[in-house]
Design goal:
The longest helix has 15 residues, at 43-57. It is globular and about 45 Å long. The chain has one domain (3-197): Aminopeptidase. By secondary structure, the chain is α+β, with helices and mostly antiparallel strands. It is built from 8 helices and 7 strands; from the N terminus they run αβαααββααβαβαββ. The two termini are 30 Å apart. The protein is 44% helix and 20% strand. It has a 7-stranded mixed sheet, sandwiched between helices.
Length: 200
């Protein structure tokens, strides 16, 4: 592996200046995702949604990027929330604006995300993980996830995620996640796996 590849795998905590790069990378990474292409048929609207989520997550030091924004991960730490109360109040108006008549189904989908997240035991929640399509096949995303999990292991905390693409389930399992449940889109056409990784 040459030095350039090593540089691409060097991860750091993102800051506000990385918002655009991280948003573009995650938008591109999820462009053909089975779930999010259902939720946002107009893919350009998905970038607006991701930017909204990532901007909120930057209030915690748990948004990570690799060099050149080739991969990004967005975590919510134990006791944290994906959005602030003020931002929660903006969700439905924003989705109405982005999705029109379809927004009700997507709001219901988001409610299913919330209902499926484990309650009671503090944990790190992986909200988003993606690699820019131009850089796929280099192991950047899974290396970033492994590095994040090593830091979580230092705190002896568990981790949780939802897998919106079955093609990724085995990758998560290799890093210690196990499937604990599932839920579907309101129309039943897409299913997500919920996955948990015990503290180490």
């Amino acid at each position: 592996m040459d030095g350039e590849d090593d540089g691409q795998k060097t991860a750091r905590v993102a800051t506000e200046v990385d918002l655009e790069g991280a948003s573009r990378t995650l938008w591109a990474a999820f462009h053909d995702d089975p779930l999010w292409s259902w939720a946002f048929p107009d893919r350009d609207k998905l970038e607006v949604w991701w930017r909204f989520l990532i901007k909120s997550a930057l209030r915690y030091p748990w948004v990570w990027i690799t060099s050149g924004h080739t991969a990004a991960s967005v975590w919510v730490p134990p006791g944290g929330s994906e959005l602030t109360e003020q931002e929660e109040a903006r969700v439905e108006p924003l989705l109405d604006d982005l999705l029109g008549a379809r927004s009700g189904e997507v709001v219901e989908l988001l409610e299913r995300f919330d209902a499926s997240r484990p309650a009671g035991e503090p944990h790190y929640y992986l909200s988003l993980l993606g690699t820019h399509p131009d850089c796929r096949g280099q192991g950047l995303g899974i290396a970033l996830l492994a590095e994040n999990l090593a830091k979580i292991d230092e705190e002896a905390m568990p981790a949780y995620l939802e897998s919106s693409n079955p093609d990724n389930d085995k990758r998560y399992e290799r890093l210690g996640f196990r499937r604990v449940g599932e839920f579907s889109t309101p129309d039943g056409s897409r299913t997500l796996a919920t996955m948990w990784r015990e503290a180490r």
